[in-house]
Amino acid sequence: MQIDIGIEPDQRKQIAGGLSRVLADSYTLYLKTHNFHWNVTGPMFQTLHLMFEAQYTELALAVDLIAERVRALGFPAPGTYKQFAELSAIREDDGVPKAEDMIRRLVEGHETTARTSREVFRVAEGANDQPTCDLLTQRMQVHEKTAWMLRSLLE
């Protein structure tokens, strides 16, 4: 059945492609945060272990919302590590970094995801796609706040 939600097919495709990048960034950041939760050590262990758990839990819920929006626009959501690696601007880490380096890398990941979301927002806004704009606004707010909180640990 044809999708007729007031957004042209080419615009829907462009938005879904952008959301797929946001999804890939978010999932990669989820995995990185979960990895750091498992492997953090040092004097800030308890604080970081709990903080990382709250952050990866939030990301786990977010990836579902992003993927569902891609589907609502009429396109398949990426769902493999291979697809995420191709689409994400966030790179995976090798080894287990020190706690402060984990914090820095997560700040970078949240800022990267906020930038990707902001790029896609412009496309969605141009297509008058308020649901996607709303979703992206919420995601930018979460990523910017989380980056601030993590950066505060380094001062």
From TrEMBL:
Chain ranges of the Ferritin/DPS domain: 19-155
Main enzyme class: oxidoreductase
GO molecular function, one term: oxidoreductase activity, acting on metal ions
EC number annotated for this UniProt entry: 1.16.-.-
The keyword Transferase appears for this protein: no
Pfam families assigned: Ferritin
Keywords carried by this UniProt record: Oxidoreductase
Record-linked Gene3D superfamilies: 1.20.1260.10
UniProt keyword Oxidoreductase present: yes
Recorded family membership: Belongs to the Dps family.
Protein name: DNA protection during starvation protein 2
Gene: dps2
